[in-house]
Specification:
The chain is of the alpha+beta class. It folds into two domains: about 100 residues; about 110 residues, Roll (Archaeosine Trna-guanine Transglycosylase, Chain: A, domain 4), CATH 2.30.130. It contains nine helices and five strands; from the N terminus they run ααααααβαβββααβ. The model has no long low-confidence stretch (mean pLDDT about 90).
Length: about 220
Amino acid sequence: MDHVKNDMYFAKRILKNIEVLSRYLKDKSQDDLLHDGFLCDAIENRFTKLSEDASKLSSPFKESLPTIPWTAIYSIRNRICHDYDVVDAPILYKTVKISFPKFRDDLLGKLPCHFMTLNQEPFLATTEGWKTVEMRLNDEKRRLLKIGDIIVFTNKETEEKAIVEIDDLKPFLSFDELYASYPKRAIGYRNDEKPDPRDMLEYYQEEDIRKWGALAICIKLY
């Protein structure tokens, strides 16, 4: 499907780069960035892409987010592109660690976004990238989901957040049908676990499953 290159398109690209930058620096110190040339190059490359996408946003869109330091973002990008010797790694580090979480939240307020919670194990499986199908009841709330929408998952134990995009939506009459349609790792089971549709009874009543059916939310991690 062709992407319409509008504000939503570029905002999603910026959001993805924010998430990637955050993952690059997860559990990293400022000293790690200062002494790891490969990490610094990766951060600079992603920051440049983010800034270039930001420059393509319309003026009304940017004006609607006045707390985002657009000029500072462009300034850092210009220093990366034209003055490699004076790029300040601590500035990059602080921008990603301190400024970007607020930037991300502001962007999410502009995008089609849904919020869901996950237990620790499925959350980790999602952030590790091997759980690619979220299973939910296909009720009225879930029928508001659309392909291309964003889901923010919150880890119930740690409050950590993960952002994914809906890649596909497939309804089923039951979780039995859903389970039969995907590899066990895709729906969140580890190699030493046996998938069982009855596990979903921990979350949903049988009568509700019969009434609404099941929904496979195919996702891709930002």
